[in-house]
Automatic annotation (TrEMBL), chains A, B:
The lineage of its organism: Bacteria, Pseudomonadati, Pseudomonadota, Gammaproteobacteria, Lysobacterales. SUPFAM superfamilies: Formate/glycerate dehydrogenase catalytic domain-like, NAD(P)-binding Rossmann-fold domains. This is proton-translocating NAD(P)(+) transhydrogenase. Its EC number is 7.1.1.1. One of its GO terms (molecular function) is proton-translocating NAD(P)+ transhydrogenase activity. GO terms for biological process: NADPH regeneration. The transhydrogenation between NADH and NADP is coupled to respiration and ATP hydrolysis and functions as a proton pump across the membrane. Residues 147-309 form the Alanine dehydrogenase/pyridine nucleotide transhydrogenase NAD(H)-binding domain. It catalyses: NAD(+) + NADPH + H(+)(in) = NADH + NADP(+) + H(+)(out). Residues 6-138 form the Alanine dehydrogenase/pyridine nucleotide transhydrogenase N-terminal domain. It comes from Frateuria terrea.
Length: 366, 366
């Protein structure tokens, strides 16, 4: 029997991505899978229904009634699960932490659900790693937002009326988002620095042509891990950062830890010491922000400094974000398929560790 | 007697630039000129009052009562002129075309006014050329707005989940704004093309690493000027452009002519043929737009294509835009000063051609 993979039009406010793109629909079709999408599912991402040559379109109720596997970008409201066929599978970002109610809703329909945020960060998982692919989009977009909101030019400009000096940009946190933000600032010609508590990021930051900001306090420990700083060392580090911020035009902070509140790195006092006209874009706003003054989704002015806390940055570049996301979903879904049926192999750690609920039995305590 | 150069806080909605920056205040001070600014004049540009070491601050009325020369970014409302001292001078962008009422207001106070938009585009005028300096800011910002609003990445991205192809960007019009837009798109890694009816722009476009879009219709005439196209040639050119637009992700149009309505280059039918998710940023929105569908200051959706018509783009990067503008004003003001007095030399074409009103006598019919 042919299995059906479905996707709805995402319902969250401002969400423009789609979990199945025309490219992935074609690949699923090639595997003998039927693709069933809600009317207009890809429209906001730049994929109108007619761009899906290998998919069938129906209303949401029909998609839910027929899908053996439902792919989603963000978790749907719990009522959606109630409309699914018993024993079906859900794959996507399911925000597993603190999601007891959601897991209970999955249980009522005996659903099996995989939260892709829980993938281990191994080599094999990279092709499915939605956190990485979407963080790349977030880092790129955060820096574009910064460039657009900045009262200065990023690049140096030589004009008949003299030279305009490039902006000084600091990116805090050099994970996927941070590195993409650094790359974007460099492309735009800004004088760019990156900072991370993990000393091994120095090489990655420098390989992008940026400078590693050295605060003179080394947290290098044994085995490549950062060691805990003493209270005095931490105070010295904070002071060194505060002093450095006085010359910076733009900060993009990217120190987000999924499912946990974002670490507070920039204090109100540090912001108060910055130049008038300086700008902070806090990519960690969703988790409360890396800056004490950040208000998620809002623009804050403090002592002449602007702090932006944009939400759901990947949804702002929905076409490419969806392309990467759908490929991640496809690569994970391949793991679940065997002989034309959905048959997850729980001896595979990628399957086992992402499972929220199996046949309705909770598998994750977030 | 010491002369006083003044500037107000700009009053137009959304205007954040200032005509006198701390750098220019210092230079004027060095020439023995007193600088008198309205409280907060530079604040929105990132120059709080305390950043001006060599200026005096007062309220608007005092500035107007004491200024021998008033510098402005945009023309103030006519009532402002009435508060100036008789015979004083005004320098700035004065929107001279169709400004009979403004010229009459200048006359009532016997003011002498210079509209910097009227500078001839000669080598000597370059250092004062506000249209060029502000167009550079506009072109840069238009492309940032495009990158931010684009559903795709501009650069190519190689990820664990496959490659993301770069966006295809077309810039129409290769003047100062267009070339800056091209440079910005190139910096961001987009596949960039430039188009202009003037064949001599090919070299400039190519020197930025972009491709010159050749529509196969040559308008090359004698003496380096473009010749008028025949009706058939123009139709062929339009058709070739429409065909080409089908593969483009982003268009930035920059064909603006100061004081005249912008030429309509993109028809509704051309837009209708573009890809869903495509984006047009119309830098000529202020003059009505280069696209038939543009609504100044608004966002229009048409057949899946988004058309943005942003207004006053230079005000969005007020710090650097003001730095360049103030240098332009300073360089022009130097022309007017002789032995510590304002003594315009009307035998200088830069002075003669920009003069709107001399001692109240109208000098320009716009």
């Amino acid at each position: 029997m042919t299995i059906t993979v479905g996707a709805l039009r995402e319902a969250a406010a401002g969400e423009r991505r789609v979990a199945i793109t025309p490219e992935v629909a074609r690949k699923l079709h090639g595997k003998g899978v039927r693709v069933l999408l809600e009317h207009g599912a890809g429209e906001a991402a730049g994929f109108p229904d007619q761009s899906y040559a290998e998919a069938t379109f129906a209303d949401a109720q029909q998609v839910l009634a027929q899908a053996d596997l439902l792919a989603c970008v963000l978790p749907p409201v719990d009522a959606v699960f109630e409309q699914m066929r018993e024993g079906a599978t859900v794959v996507g970002q399911l925000r597993p932490h603190g999601a007891a109610t959601r897991i209970a809703a999955l249980g009522r329909r005996k659903l099996t659900a995989f939260a892709l945020e829980l993938l281990p960060r191994t080599t094999r998982a990279q092709a499915m790693d939605v956190l990485s692919s979407q963080a790349a989009v977030a880092g790129y977009r955060a820096m574009l937002i910064a460039a657009e909101a900045c009262p200065k030019f990023f690049p140096m400009l030589t004009t008949a009326a003299g030279t305009i000096r490039p902006s000084r940009v600091l990116v805090i946190g050099a994970g996927v988002a941070g590195l993409q933000a650094i790359a974007t600032a460099r492309r735009l010609g800004a004088q760019t620095e990156g900072y991370d508590v993990r000393p091994e990021t120095r090489e990655q930051i420098e390989s992008l042509g940026a400078k590693f900001l050295d605060l003179g306090v080394s947290a290098a420990g044994t085995g490549g891990y950062a060691r805990e700083l003493s209270v005095e060392e931490r105070a010295a580090q904070q002071q060194a950062l505060a002093d450095h911020l006085k010359v910076v035009d733009v900060i993009v902070t990217t120190a987000a830890v999924p499912g946990r509140p974002a670490p507070k790195i920039l204090t109100a006092a540090m912001v108060g010491g910055m130049k008038p006209g300086a700008l902070i874009v806090d990519l960690a706003a969703e988790g409360g922000g890396n800056c004490e003054l950040t208000r998620p989704g809002e623009r804050v002015e403090h002592a002449g400094v602007t702090i932006l806390g944009p939400l759901n940055l990947p949804a702002g570049a929905p076409l490419h974000a969806s392309e990467m996301y759908a490929r991640n979903v496809y690569n994970f879904t391949e793991l679940l398929l065997r002989d034309g049926a959905i048959a997850p192999d729980f001896s595979d750690e990628l399957v086992a560790r992402t499972c929220l609920s199996h046949g309705g039995e909770p598998r994750f305590q977030g």
